[in-house]
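Lecture 7 notes: from sequence to structure.

We start with a single chain of 150 residues. Read the sequence below before looking at the structure.
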Amino acid sequence: MLDFRTIPASKRIAMVAHDNRKTELLEWALVNREALSKNTLYGTGTTGKLLEEKLNQPVIRLLSGPLGGDQQVGSMIAEEKIDLLIFFWDPMSAQPHDPDVKALLRLCVVWNIPVASNKATADFIFSSPLMNQDYTATQIDYSTYLNRKL
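Now the structure, written as tokens:
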């Protein structure tokens, strides 16, 4: 059985970047400043601070990723408080919080929210007409899983 939920036209966007990808995310955000300004932005740690300064718009700042920020974003996704994740992660560097990163990406799939892990994907998402309108997302009903006998 499927459930449905509406992702509103004005989205709640979490923005995260590993150290080696922060510059790329900031450059992308500056190019997309107007589109971003129509949404509520959340950022982890330094990324949130840098985005707020670069875009000259408010960014709700969470903890640094390794200090729990990735888990905060994941929790917000599970609570349906985040509609889209822009996460420029570094595939070439081991991170002390790699399990948190994997869990965060897993939650994006579980809760069926769009996620961009690089500039190309972020460009595709932001150029989609769905970015500026309500979108009805399907949500898998996990009640069978939750009600299974252990």
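The mean pLDDT is 92. Keep this in mind for problem set 3.
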